[in-house]
Design goal:
With 382 residues, the protein is an alpha/beta fold. It has helices at residues 21-29, 59-64, 78-87, 100-105, 110-116, 141-148, 153-158, 170-193, 203-215, 231-234, 255-264, 274-277, 282-297, 302-312, 322-325, 329-333, 375-379, and strands spanning 10-14, 33-38, 68-72, 93-96, 121-126, 197-202, 241-242, 247-250, 316-318, 337-342, 346-351. The chain folds into 2 domains: 10-211 and 332-379, Crotonobetainyl-coa:carnitine coa-transferase, domain 1 (Rossmann fold, 3-Layer(aba) Sandwich), CATH 3.40.50.10540; 241-318, formyl-coa transferase, domain 3. The strands form 3 sheets. It has a 6-stranded parallel beta sheet, sandwiched between helices. Strands 7-8-9 form a 3-stranded antiparallel beta sheet, with helices on one face. The two termini are 18 Å apart.
């Protein structure tokens, strides 16, 4: 079995839901021995109505918890807290997303864990940074999307003033990636110095920094030079184009490439046409441009446009439905979806770790665990 770059690193993972488990799964893909500590009833993300074969093995849990071993402990009991403490000296990372007061009460606050293992990297995934007035408040994806300004994006695109969530648990997943690099950087520091440390990963700040990379826009400067919200990203015309039999996305790098696309779609000399030239003002010309792009796209099938894009160096890609993604020819060719046999769930579809390492490849070594299936082995030191 391939050994990833984190082979030999043991991680005690007390995270649940999505913010945390997504990060620790990637650490497991990278070769770490991730020990998922969960209550006897299991991670609260396990049950998903109508998307499971068994109630404790729901689809989101399956997608976020491979390459982990499950240890079931009731940390309200002194005996089980002692079992957790016994695992700490042999671990390099301790990560959780429990509120600080509850962590202290359950016996795994930073001071307690660091006393047992001073070199441990202790990562606390929180909703809001401990220095601010929101510290200690509950945080979920919807709340952080709202606070970060994400719910203000779609109204700026379509003019509907109703604030709306982006249809993905994107704040949870993005914040998990911040937790991932935090773990890796702290492990690098530990490798060089031998020092462990406390690391705080606040969801609100992490997601806001991600969101405003482009949308801070004019407020990047002080005094503010223009509006917030990056206009090219917020245009209502930034969307796939319909073809004869489906949809494509086109992101033209130049005026010449756009002209060529429209020519291939039967619109010649588009920028010299009456339709474009007689459009008065910048906004009208932009509208005419997108209208011609839409008309041109209808001239060919999606597969034809894919071939024409390659031939003429125009960035074109098929716009898949969620269902289409399962049969996308590129993803199939690289083996992205790995249909595996789970001991209790039967066939299930895993997504292959996307990053390649030439010397220390990633791998899927363990299927998502049932509650506590590895408790005896781990507590016996295996």
């Amino acid at each position: 079995m391939a050994k990833g770059p984190l082979d030999g690193i043991r991680i005690l993972d007390l995270t649940s839901y999505i913010f945390g488990p997504y990060a620790t799964q990637i650490l497991g893909d990278l070769g770490a021995d991730v020990i998922k500590i969960e209550a006897p009833e299991g991670d609260r993300q396990r049950p998903v109505a109508k998307a499971a074969k068994n109630p404790e093995m729901g689809s989101i849990f399956m997608a976020l918890n491979r390459n982990k071993r499950s240890v079931a402990l009731d940390l309200k009991l002194d005996a089980d807290r002692e079992k957790l403490h016994a695992l700490v000296p042999n671990a390099q990372v301790f990560i959780h997303n429990v509120r600080a007061d509850a962590a202290q009460r359950l016996g795994f606050g930073y001071e307690i864990i660091a006393k047992l293992n001073p070199s441990i990297v202790y990562v606390h995934c929180v909703g809001y940074g401990s220095d601010g007035p929101y510290a200690g408040r509950q945080a979920f994806d919807d709340l952080v999307q709202a606070a970060s300004g994400a719910t203000d994006l779609l109204p700026r695109v379509d003019g509907n003033p109703e604030k709306r969530l982006l249809p993905s648990y994107i704040a949870d997943k993005v914040s998990s990636l911040h937790a991932l690099y935090a773990v890796l950087a702290a492990l690098f520091h530990r490798e060089r110095t031998g020092e462990g440390q406390f690391v705080e990963v606040p969801m609100f700040e992490s997601f806001t920094s991600f969101l405003l990379a482009e949308h801070l826009a004019g407020a990047t400067f002080e005094p503010q030079v223009s509006h917030m919200g990056y206009t090219p990203a917020l245009t209502a015309d930034r969307k796939p184009l319909q073809t004869k039999d489906g949809w494509i996305a086109v992101q033209s790098p130049s005026r010449a490439a756009s002209a060529k696309f429209m020519e291939l779609g039967g619109i010649h000399d588009a920028y010299d046409s009456d339709r474009f030239v007689k459009a008065e003002g910048g906004r009208a010309k932009v509208g005419a441009y997108y209208a011609m792009m839409r008309d041109a796209a209808l001239a060919h099938t999606t597969d034809e446009w894919m071939a024409l894009g390659m031939q003429h160096h125009i960035p074109i890609m098929r716009a898949n439905t969620l269902e289409d993604v399962l049969t996308d020819p590129h993803l199939n060719a690289v083996g992205f979806f790995d249909v595996r046999e789970h001991p209790s769930e039967g066939k299930w579809r895993a997504m292959k770790p996307p990053i390649k390492f030439s010397k220390s490849p990633t791998s899927i070594r363990r299927d998502p665990p049932r509650i506590g299936q590895d408790t005896a082995d781990v507590l016996e030191g295996k």
